[in-house]
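lol so apparently i was supposed to do this last week
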Amino acid sequence: MVSIRDRFPIFKSKIYMNSCSQGALSIDVQDAYANYLRDWDEKGAPWEYWGQQNEAARHAFAGLVNAEPNEVAVTTSLSAGVSALASALDFSGERNKVVISDFEFPTVAQIWHAQEARGAKVVHVPAAGNIIPLSRFADAIDEQTLIVSISHVCFRNGTMLDIQAIIEMAHAKGALVLVDSYQALGTTPIDVKKLKVDFLAGGVLKYLLASAGLAYLYVRKELLADLKPTAMGWFSQANIFAMDIYANTPHPTARRFESGTPPVPNTYAAVAGIKLVQQVGVENIERQLKVLTGALKEGIMKRGFNLMSPVDPAKHGAMITVRSHKVDLLTKWLANDGIIVSHRDDNLRISPHFYNDLHDVDCVIDGLSKYRELMV
Ligand SMILES: Cc1ncc(COP(=O)(O)O)c(C=O)c1O
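anyway here it is w/ pyridoxal-5'-phosphate bound
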């Protein structure tokens, strides 16, 4: 039997620890793309079948986060889903405040700031070093808050927010909550029903092991009827094939947050990627990541390097970051040695997944030691 690591050909030649940026390519996802081309060639223009593929991608995500498929919009990027959501919110009343954390991915912050033209008042919750104390959210969230928008795991330093506590805090003030779970999906169990979150966005590029061009927006079903996006398209209509040019009739489900022609090739890849994650099991993945990230942190601290992620395992996700004053050069030199990682700000981002092992961790730590002069 082929071991799970053997399903990722890159490990024949490289130590790949860059899943926060892009998951490693599996033979399953390679086959999925080949199947798309085969179907196109053999069937011509099988749009009915491709519609079913889109539904399979919707169901795969719904299964992963315990949503109902009707609560999931399939989008081409996280930005597209969040923009459609923002377009459905009304900032003209007294409740016009958007509370965002300073750990947001730029796209999310930019989308909320774009709503200032529509009356939104955006308030940032500042970080204290590599964490954001809950008290700072408590200070920012009030009766004027329409929505709280938080990143589950920060793309800069790997810090994981206590999203459950923030959701409860926001709901107590009557505010909605959007969680950007892009950096957490596939690494830790996420149950939208248990969390009671209103909106959750993410994509398949990273720990869900598929490729660019496919993302999701979960919308709690009780909210759907009252949310009427103005960012629309024919695939967000109640009946796509009505071809109505005299009216806009949004679909009753979360499909109303979709737009134009779906990213068909990527739906094949998404189904294959999420299937792999489900086969391994998200709880198993989380357990293994605790071991790998624990070993990374220990190696970094033992060698005297500057750990930028929190030490507490409850406060970080799958990504561990370490400071370098020449981080672009360090990333390049490590890549020349066959070690693939990435960087943001002055942080080198080391992001294992279930396909990594402790030998990979040793190789990365030895690689950092080799370039000790860059590690300040
Ligand atoms: C936390 C987070 N949110 C959002 C994005 C970007 O999403 P998209 O490009 O699909 O809009 C990324 C991608 O790196 C991310 O890490």
